[in-house]
């Protein structure tokens, strides 16, 4: 992993960012406890990973982002009192992910509104592909879950189809998705979800369990 230097104005919050993390993570060392670990892949503007951890204080949350600009934005939403259970890391999830994230160590993985890459010629850039799901399988505990959402109908169909090809994951929904938020009154609306909801696009929620 490429080393990253934080701007001076963010340095006071560097405890939330796993700077220059290049070796296998030791969660007990990182978080100071042995609580379950949940992972959000692609934290966007940070609404989800800054709010959910304040409701689940007995869970540790690890957020992965590729864009340093977004990491800096998220850091501004975190404080040492309410977010002791949050850490961010700059990481690309691929076949080598287990060099950083321990195998079978995560209880839940969240993926909120990944880029749908709607044009057919760009489908190869979509996050949800078979090799990516292979990586998720490696780092999830047996019985661990992947929670996904998208407001793009064709991408929802794509995701359902990709997981339907697997014998190592099962959907918690009969048709592969639901249109009702699994969080009910605690639903956290991300920036990208709100933008599309305002123009009439309702999310699809998908939930898969590692067999």
């Amino acid at each position: 992993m490429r080393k990253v230097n934080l701007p001076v104005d963010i340095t006071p919050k560097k405890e939330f960012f796993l700077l220059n993390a290049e070796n296998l993570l030791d969660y007990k060392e990182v978080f100071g406890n042995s609580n379950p670990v949940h992972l959000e892949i692609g934290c966007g503007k940070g609404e989800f990973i800054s709010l959910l951890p304040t409701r689940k204080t007995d869970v540790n949350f690890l957020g992965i982002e590729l864009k340093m600009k977004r990491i800096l934005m998220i850091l501004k939403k975190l404080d040492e009192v309410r977010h002791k259970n949050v850490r961010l890391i700059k990481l690309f999830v691929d076949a080598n992910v287990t060099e950083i994230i321990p195998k079978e160590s995560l209880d839940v993985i969240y993926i909120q509104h990944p880029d749908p890459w709607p044009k057919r010629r760009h489908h190869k850039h979509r996050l949800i592909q078979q090799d990516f799901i292979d990586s998720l399988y490696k780092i999830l505990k047996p019985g661990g879950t992947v929670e996904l959402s998208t407001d793009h109908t064709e991408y929802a169909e794509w995701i359902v189809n990709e997981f339907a090809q697997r014998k190592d994951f099962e959907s918690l929904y009969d048709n592969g998705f639901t249109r009702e938020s699994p969080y009910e009154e605690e639903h956290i609306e991300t920036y990208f979800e709100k933008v599309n909801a305002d123009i009439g696009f309702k999310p699809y929620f998908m939930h898969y369990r590692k067999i």
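The mean pLDDT is 88. The radius of gyration is 17 Å.
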